[in-house]
Amino acid sequence: MVGRYWYRFVASIVLTTFGALIVFILLYPVLFALLSSLVRGQMIVTDISQIAKAGLSLEHYVKAISDPRFINDTLLSLLVALINIIFALVVITPAAYAFSRFRFPGRDTLLVAYLVMNQVGGGFGVAAVIALYVMLLKLNQLGLPVIGNPVVLAAIYTAGAVPFQTWMVKNYLDALPREIDESAFIDGANWRQIIFDVVLPASRPTMVVIALFAFMGAWGEFIIANFLRVETLAAYVYATATGQTIFWSDFAARTLLFAIPIIAIYVFTQKYIGEAMRYGAGKI
Question: C-alpha dihedral over 169, 121, 220, 167, to 10 degrees?
């Protein structure tokens, strides 16, 4: 009995220490980014003594939020993220419902194709981005306003998210009783009403996760945004870290401001993320 107690006690100490070490490793670069953003002048803080010499200031944050380009790009990123969320909910929810509730020719093949596309990356992903860029240039030459269009950018983000999120929502819907659909159908509801007025409210956790992933995808991506010449906040922050002269403290402040929305969303949606992953993504 005593041996089992000591075993649990030692195991808890080891696991707690290991967890604290992981947290420290993850937060260590964030700490120095924070210090670099607060120090006077332009420098990367690598030693605490640098702070004592230069002093602390909020000048880099004030400079960032006073920059019209930073504000405009933030608003544009929010617009792209909002459009992406709407596209994702409108496209992915009906597709996942169809895969979950109906049996049709080619269904299993499409599901396997979705799974394969979800796993493809590396060189194939780079080739796909290059092919996409060439296609968009051709469309722009034909007179279609695709370059510099935030709606087109959001549509591309949604298309890239379809395979994984369709699988996730489908698995979540598989766990919902079919009696919900049948009762609504008997009461005279059509398919649109069943999906958006009955199934969607019952699937709130996975809808929240779809919206979260859509927001994160639009907020943090900058490669395709650069291709389309849509200056989102991510593209702007990336641009401040390139070139011959880099103002590191300004860059650190902008980076931390850029990360605030994602952190805030994660804090307020943890409950929904856990439930959706347990019933949805955990079965992929």
Answer: 0
Q: Which two tokens stand for residue 57?
A: 């200031």
Euclidean distance between CA atoms 209 and 212, whole angstroms:
5
pLDDT tens for residues 216-245?
A: 888 988 888 888 888 899 888 888 887 777
Q: In angstroms, how far is CA 21 from the centroid of its own chain?
A: 26
Q: Tokens standing for 165?
A: 């999120």
Indicate if the pLDDT at residue 79 is higher than 90: yes
Question: Could you tell me the pTM of the whole model?
Answer: 0.80
* Amino acid making up residue 284: I
Give the amino acid at 274.
G
Contacts of 205 (CB under 8 A, 6+ apart): 172, 271, 272, 273, 275, 276, 279
At 261-276, the pLDDT tens digits run 888 888 887 777 766 6
- Average pLDDT score over the chain: 80
What is the rounded CA–CA span in Å between residue 199 and residue 94? 10
Q: For residue 204, which of 176, 166, 167, 182 has the smallest C-alpha distance?
A: 176
Q: Which domains does the chain have, with CATH numbers?
A: 2-54 (no CATH), 67-283 (1.10.3720.10)
- Per DSSP, the three-state class of 101 is helix
> 56 by DSSP, 3-state: which?
strand
3-class SS at 39?
Answer: strand
Question: How far apart (Å, rounded) are the C-alpha atoms in residues 180 and 187?
Answer: 11
Tokens read off for 233: 């906040």
The whole-angstrom separation of Cα 77 and Cα 9 is: 49
Phi, psi of 40 (to 5 degrees): -70, 145
Instruction: Tell me how far apart the alpha carbons of residues 30 and 153 are, in angstroms, rounded to a whole number.
Output: 30
Q: Which residue matches tokens 């107690």?
A: 5
Determine the Cα–Cα distance for residues 136 and 183; give it in Å rounded to an integer: 46
